[in-house]
Design a protein that fits this description.
415 residues; mainly alpha
Length: 415
């Protein structure tokens, strides 16, 4: 009998360890697909412009049908799906997003294309809050590291899907490609069902993950403004990047490669800039990344295609890396009530900005040209600097406490 005990305990421990890992794997799979869906649209913008005779502002509006819907419905969609488990919610959101791409692939009209974009955006609106909640509930107070992996997974989708679509455009038309993307989404939705654990972990774990909030409402509002401007900078530049590459003599395949380079650099930036924020503080890190973003954007305007390609991964590193620093700051400044709602509000602010801001950049590009649009995005990056300096008094001591609080947890996990 005593010999049976060591066999039972490891089995229970293994099962307990697998459940969080499966939750993280499912969240990452959903994030790869939905972020891939979001950013492959950039490759299709020039195709839609040629087919439907759209202006820059019209293209930005098309983008807004997906991106704005996804951002504006983050909180409402999460509330409507409150009765669903995270497993069911993620599978349903992926299925709806895939159905939107199926409509895009079957329609011949601009109206049908817009309807598909809206439906796909509705599906993707549920992914961010529920996948973040899934990881937070699975890991509790130790969720910071797994949430970083979840964010990195989204950048993998951003790097893979655009270049895959760009390569496919050299062989087949865009509508069959949209149908193929719908098929990928259906497969992902089916795969989520066996991967994500059944049931709902105890809510206490999620509460523990968000229990370290400093309750600074004014600081949190300032953080929302910084996040919105940072996202506006990124989306404004990405709106003009395909046309910037074409103006330098690049073909459609070069557009896909440029997006893959900048998104790959962005994936690395999330890890590197998170480390910078941990070591040197939020304020110095964000000031450095936003200033470098503005300078590198201007440099890509002046350089020919080859050197521009070399700069794009570095630009992606700072362009995307800032968001990692800001995202990690949400729990510290979250108003009373926990980090869960704060994350939903932060996603709403940044995604809404990403959907609406490119329309203003598009109008500017129509009137003054794409170079002026890129310069305006660079100025937006610089506009975040004085706002970030306003967080110094709120985060100067908090960042140090945060480092000393979190590092022992990471050490224990590794040990």
């Amino acid at each position: 009998m005593p010999l049976a005990l060591p066999q039972t305990v490891p089995s229970a421990v293994t099962d307990g360890a697998r459940r969080p890992r499966r939750a993280l794997l499912g969240a990452c799979l959903a994030h790869v697909l939905h972020d891939g869906y979001t950013d492959l649209l950039y490759v299709l913008l020039p195709v839609w412009q040629a087919q439907f005779g759209l202006s820059y502002a019209g293209l930005a509006l098309m983008r807004c049908f997906y991106y704005g819907t996804m951002g504006g419905l983050q909180v409402p969609a999460d509330r409507l799906a409150a009765g669903l488990t995270n497993r069911a919610a993620l599978a349903l959101s992926t299925l709806i997003a895939a159905a939107g791409f199926l409509i895009m692939g079957l329609t011949d009209s601009l109206f049908g294309l817009c309807a598909g974009l809206v439906l796909s955006g509705v599906g993707s609106s549920l992914q961010h809050p529920r996948a973040s909640l899934l990881v937070s509930e699975a890991y509790g107070a130790d969720a910071r590291g797994p949430l970083g992996i979840y964010n990195f997974a989204g950048d993998l989708g951003k790097a893979v899907f655009p270049v895959a679509v760009a390569l496919l455009l050299g062989v087949i038309a865009w509508r069959p490609i949209a149908g193929l993307m719908a098929l990928v989404g259906l497969v992902a939705a089916a795969a989520l069902l066996p991967i994500v654990p059944r049931g709902r972990p105890p809510r206490a774990a999620a509460a523990t993950a968000g229990g370290a909030s400093r309750g600074d409402r004014s600081g949190f509002r300032l953080l929302l403004a910084i996040g919105a401007l940072d996202t506006a900078t990124r989306m404004g530049y990405l709106l003009f990047l395909p046309f910037l590459i074409h103006a330098k003599g690049g073909a459609q395949t070069a557009v896909g490669v440029s997006l893959a380079l900048i998104f790959s650099g962005g994936a690395l930036g999330k890890a590197c800039c998170g480390w910078l924020g941990e070591r040197f503080g939020v304020v110095p890190s964000v000031v450095a990344t936003e200033t470098a973003t503005a300078l590198l954007m201007v440099a890509t305007l002046a350089l020919p295609l080859g050197p521009c390609f070399l700069l794009l991964p570095v630009l992606g590193l700072v362009l995307n890396g800032t968001s990692s620093v800001l995202y990690g700051t949400v729990p510290e400044l979250a108003p009373a009530g926990g980090a869960g709602r704060a994350f939903a509000l932060f996603y709403t602010a940044v995604i809404g900005s990403g959907g609406l801001a490119p329309i203003a950049y598009g109008v500017l590009g129509d009137r003054l040209g794409e170079n002026t649009g890129v310069a305006a995005a660079a100025l937006t990056a610089l506009a975040t600097v004085p706002l970030v300096l306003g967080l110094r008094t709120r985060l100067g001591e908090g960042t140090v406490r945060h480092r000393h609080r979190e590092l022992p947890v990471l050490t224990d996990d590794r040990g």
